[in-house]
Amino acid sequence: MKAKTKLKVVEIIDQSFLGGGQRHVFLLASRINPEIFEVRVCSSPEGPLVDQLKQAGVVHHGLYLRKRSPWKSSCELRDFLAREAFDLVHTHGGVAGLSARWAAFRAQVPVIVHTLHGIHYLHYRNPFLKWLLIWQERIMSQKTHKVVCVSEANAQEAIKYRLAPESKIVVIPNGLDWPAKPLLSPQTKKDKKLKLAQLFGLAPDSYFIGTVARLHRQKGLIYLFQAWPEVSQKIKQAVLLVVGGGPLEKKFRNYLSQKGWESQILLLGERDDVSEFYGALDLFVLPSLWEGLPLVLLEAAQWALPVVATDIDGCREVITSGETGLLVPPAQSGALAEAIIWMREHPQEARHWGVNLFRKASQRFSLQMMISRVEELYLELIQERGLKKIPLVS
User: For the segment 18-46, what is each residue's pLDDT rounded down to a tens digit?
Assistant: First the structure.
């Protein structure tokens, strides 16, 4: 199919580190149908996301979306959106959702879509700030044609807090490309464990526990660290590997140094070779306090890894406890330690659950399904708005 006229779309997110929202944006921008859509991405000027977009041939526009000065960001974005004459603006996350949607409205962009990658402000400890942001979302939803939630649980939260009219809310789960069989074979695991051990000076027979997470309160990593004395006592060769950066990195490094755990718990920062990391793991752990629908669980599933995660909305949509992994109550280090130790002591069940996770997740969370539903949404909204620039297929 060839479209004689392409629809011009921009995906906007604030920062360019590789969090779940940024990976989602990259997948959308790089995989959406180029015959119908001309897709660009707007985010902060530098970062791993920008590098990946350039490698994929996706046009990137660098603009700073300032959390503390949304009005200034909105004015800059308004000028950019008006100048480029986009047909549709799709914003991702809270910061972009505020300043970029307002900018798109002022620039008279015909269609505005927003995705909630988890509704983080519902978990803020400051009640004034929480309700201020709820109020802002209610206002901004009036300027938005559709609000996309990445999980059913997030959609129910959005309805409960009246963040948008129910008629505007649509659920499109995250998705990934899935191989015909799990990426991990015994020989692959052996090779990757050896490579990782050599890279960081670790014993190849270590029991590698790992997570990929932003170093932020949301991810609950402190409870995983607090579980470590019990874990390391029962699993003598245990090593914890944490991939990701974030605002708590310095605090966590000081904490681990005070405990003398630097050789047992490694903070690896943001890395481009995450696939090498997953392949070396014996167990994947996600101790989050809240989530939308975590892509990292789907990535762990691609490798058929045994998984321990917290029993929260986003994780429950991927993991069934006792069938595809173990779920434990959030913010409970004792429960985390118990589950990790159980997985180590029951390797046959752990392997079986990992394979089950691959099989079930690959059926439910397809990237092609996600992309198709987003494309359908874009075309539906453009047609509803009576936009003349509809692709003509020859």
Answer: 888 999 999 999 999 999 999 999 999 99
Q: 10 Å Cβ neighbour count for 155?
A: 21
> Per residue in 230-276, pLDDT tens?
999 999 999 999 999 999 999 999 999 999 999 999 999 988 778 77
157 SS3 class? helix
Whether the CB-CB separation of 63 and 86 falls below 8 Å is answered with no
Number of neighbours of residue 297 by Cβ within 10 angstroms: 27
Q: Which long-range contacts (CB under 8 A, 24 or more apart) does 41-46 make?
A: 41/10, 41/11, 41/12, 41/13, 42/10, 42/11, 42/12, 42/13, 42/77, 42/80, 42/100, 43/12, 43/13, 43/14, 43/15, 43/16, 44/14, 44/15, 44/16, 45/16, 46/16
Using a 10 angstrom Cβ sphere, with 0-12 exposed, 13-18 middle and 19 or more buried, the burial of residue 201 is exposed
Torsion of CA 335, 297, 156, 29, to 10 degrees: 160
Radius of gyration of the chain from its Cα atoms, rounded to whole angstroms: 22
Closest-CA residue to 24 (of 377, 388, 371): 371
* Four-residue CA torsion sign, 315, 317, 321, 322: negative
Q: How many other C-beta atoms are found inside a 10 Å radius of the C-beta of residue 57? A: 9
Report the 10 Å Cβ neighbour count for 47.
17
Longest dimension (CA), the chain: 67
Q: Which domains does the chain have, with CATH numbers?
A: 7-175+367-384 (3.40.50.2000), 186-364 (3.40.50.2000)
Q: Which pair of structure tokens corresponds to residue 195?
A: 């490579």
Q: How far is CA 45 from CA 13, 17, 88, in A?
A: 11, 11, 21
In Å, how far are 20, 42, 88, 222, 246 from 330, measured between CA atoms? Answer: 20, 34, 38, 11, 20
Place of tokens 């669980």: 297
- Per residue in 157-191, pLDDT (tens digit) is 999 999 999 999 999 999 999 988 887 778 888 89
Q: Taking a C-beta distance cutoff of 8 angstroms, is the pair 224, 265 a contact? A: no
* 51 contacts 43 by C-beta, under 8 angstroms: no
Structure tokens at 160: 């409960």
**Rounded Cα distance, 372 and 149, in Å:** 16
CA distance 336 to 207: 16
Output b/e per residue, 61-73; b: 16+ Cβ within 10 A. eebebbeeebeeb
